[in-house]
């Protein structure tokens, strides 16, 4: 298992632990409401992180994949608690990452491709960028939620 996969699984375990501790403490309110007007919600930041990871990996495996077919989002009809929905979506994104990452041998990671940003980059850089982006935004969501809880509850 690559270090990047281990890192994602660690963040998942941390999210699960944190959500379990916070689930009865105004969890949905702290995820859905911004602390300041115009500020992103913790929920939007978390969803952004995992949906972009899923999208990037699915597009890597199939560049012609339809964005609608690979989108992951909350089900507005779900009766499942929000923290469980978020963990399920995170698992989908992790599975997409594992599927894409395991298709590449170490020696293939130095091959270059044209990134969605219009510049050439190695697969190693692409995987690294996506890991850092995802983990950074997930921790940002945790922080936004914690600040909200301290200030509002």
Largest sheet: 2 strands, antiparallel
| Total beta strands | 2
Gross morphology is elongated
Mean pLDDT: 93
Low-confidence stretches are: none
Total count of helical runs of at least 4 residues: 6
- Euclidean distance between termini CA atoms: 41 Å
Order of helices and strands, N to C? HHHHHEEH
In terms of DSSP E residues, the strand content is under 5%
Structural class: mainly alpha
Radius of gyration: 16 Å
Strands of the widest sheet, in order across it, are 1-2
Helix content: 55-70%
Oligomer kind: single chain
Descriptive notes:
This protein is mainly alpha-helical and 153 residues long. It has 6 helices and 2 strands. It has a two-stranded antiparallel sheet. Helix 1 packs antiparallel against helix 5 and helix 3 runs parallel beside helix 5. The model has no long low-confidence stretch (mean pLDDT 93).
Topology:
Blueprint: H1 3-22, H2 27-32, H3 42-61, H4 67-70, H5 82-101, E1 112-114, E2 120-122, H6 123-152
Antiparallel strand pairs: 1-2
Helix pairs in contact: 1-5, 1-6, 3-5, 3-6
Features:
153 residues; mainly alpha; elongated
Summarize the structure.
This protein has helices at residues 3-22, 27-32, 42-61, 67-70, 82-101, 123-152; strands spanning 112-114, 120-122.
């Amino acid at each position: 298992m690559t270090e990047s996969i281990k890192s994602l699984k660690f963040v998942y375990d941390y999210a699960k632990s944190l959500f379990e501790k916070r689930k009865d403490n105004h969890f949905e309110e702290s995820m859905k409401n911004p602390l300041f007007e115009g500020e992103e919600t913790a929920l939007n930041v978390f969803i952004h992180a995992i949906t972009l990871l899923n999208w990037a990996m699915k597009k890597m495996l199939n560049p012609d994949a339809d964005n609608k077919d690979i989108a992951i989002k909350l089900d507005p009809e779900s009766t499942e608690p929000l923290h469980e929905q978020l963990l399920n979506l995170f698992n989908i994104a992790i599975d997409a990452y594992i599927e894409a990452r395991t298709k590449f041998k170490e020696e293939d990671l130095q091959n270059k491709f044209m990134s969605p940003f219009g510049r050439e980059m190695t697969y190693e850089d692409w995987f690294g960028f996506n890991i850092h982006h995802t983990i950074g935004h997930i921790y940002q969501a945790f922080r936004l939620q914690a600040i909200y809880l301290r200030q509002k509850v």
